[in-house]
Amino acid sequence: MKRYDAIVLGLGAAGSATLYQLAKRGARVLGIDQFSPPHKLGSTHGDSRVTRLAIGEGAHYSPLSIRSHAIWRELEAASGASLLTENGGLIMSSGRDDRSFHGAAFFRTTVEAAERHGIAHELFDAAAIRQRYPQFAVDDHTRGYFEPSAGFVRPEECVRVQLAQAKLHGADLRLNEPVHAVEQSGDVVHVTTTSERYSADHFVIAAGAWLPQVLPELAPHFEVYRQVLYWFDVEVGYAKFTPERFPIFIWELPEGHGGIYGFPAIDGPKGGFKISTEQYIRTTTPQSVARDVSREEIDVMYRDLVAPYIKEVGARCVKAVTCLYTVTRDFGFVIDRHPRHDRIIVASPCSGHGFKHSAALGEAISDLAVGATARFDLSAFAFARLQS
What we know:
This protein is α+β, with helices and mostly antiparallel strands. It has 2 domains: about 5-45 and about 155-220 and about 330-385, FAD/NAD(P)-binding domain (3-Layer(bba) Sandwich); about 90-150 and about 225-325, D-Amino Acid Oxidase, subunit A, domain 2 (D-Amino Acid Oxidase, Chain A, domain 2). About 25% of the residues lie in helices and about 25% in strands. The protein contains 9 helices and 21 strands. The strands form 4 sheets. Strands 1, 2, 11, 12, 13, 14, 20 and 21 form an 8-stranded mixed sheet that branches. Helix 1 (about 15-25) runs parallel beside helix 5 (about 155-170) and helix 1 (about 15-25) crosses helix 8. The model has no long low-confidence stretch (mean pLDDT about 95).
């Protein structure tokens, strides 16, 4: 049996980043996934993911997003791929400064994070938003935070490139190989799959929505929710929705109507404009989730959350896909050793805002796995806060 320095289970956002960082530093590392990433069954898909440096979920996240941008640029240089587009991001609030989103006073915290970390930004009133981005139908009470360095990353391409680079640095990959059992015995972790049994000094589980099933003793700390991503028609007004003229955005809507977020049209006039909201009504599992999107869901989304707020977007839905959010009670991440098994590292940068930090978290998790000096303060992501 070949013994590894580390085994990484789950090769999506966090797993592919961790595998790449471990291989890059010369570790003997194995990556395992029950599918063949990138794929559309978990959380790491949908053509684009928001990235921003000032983080409304908490200023302590900003060092991770800043470092992730640098890593994606390094990966672009190494691979020739296009991963990160910094076309600017607009965060809008039509309510009070203390409105909670992802467990934080989102708009106010975003501004505070920018000021603390020296992130370039502008603050807009409603008139300035209308002048700069007339596509948004804002009311007179809406305020905006604009960050030039925000934008989007391409999640499938990030995963593909990091796995390819990991292989170039010597990582072993086992794809389409489900794991049946994980057990720590002394200072060794044994992993049994449908094909073989492997051992390693450390085991990193980055299984996303499958985490509660792989380690059921931790399931009470995580809930899984179905989310829907929509692409609506902007063919007629396409020029107004290109990355050069339209930012990524997050909008806390007025009068308690929730929030929406969206992207420029990045796949040509017929590719549509991507927009979504979030729902936390019913929990689900990767096996039982409804992966089809109904006509009713599409119609309600357009009627309630697109047509009233975004101008020149047609009612025709170009496509719609589902993804999974794995959510903790405080919407924070879990990056920590297993409470009872010190050789098992749980990597769940979850709750719907993880991808923008994933490249840097790969570095941080690899530090944990090889006992290196930590590059980031991960204390906010410890299990202890969820067990109190």
